Amino acid sequence: MFPEKMSFDGLKAGETYFVVMFDDEQLSIPIIQTLRYVGEHLRERDSQRAYFVQLGHAGNETPFFVRKEDVSDLVLDKPQLLRFLELSFSGRLSHPPE
User: Fold this and answer.
1) Number of domains present in the structure of the chain
2) Interatomic CA distance for residues 67 and 5, integer angstroms
3) In a domain, 45, yes or no
4) Which is nearest to 6 in space by CA: 82, 70, 88?
5) Does residue 26 lie within any of the structural domains?
6) What local confidence, expressed as pLDDT, does residue 91 receive?
7) What is the pLDDT of residues 81-94, one digit of tens each?
8) Residue 18 belongs to domain spanning
9) CA-to-CA distance for 16 and 34, rounded, in angstroms?
10) Considering the domain boundaries, does residue 13 fall inside one?
11) The pTM is what?
12) Sign for the pseudo-dihedral over CA of 35, 77, 95, 23
């Protein structure tokens, strides 16, 4: 039922991506963060992170990092975002099992 997941290796520099959270338990009120992918960022001990800038009002950009292993659970491209929102607005986005 959920959209296909994004992979760390599938990210492209300069492209726009999204992170969706919800303001309610029914998953019907989405909060969308818009991100532009900058590139891979290495941290101490070889920890890989995806480096984005979060796009804001009046051109404000804030650094936003996602661990490599979390990209597939958090980051959506445009088609995935549309599918995710379609499922949410139609009530077909079921709450993931805990």
Assistant:
1) 1
2) 15
3) yes
4) 70
5) yes
6) 87
7) 999 999 989 888 86
8) 8-51+65-89
9) 7
10) yes
11) 0.84
12) positive
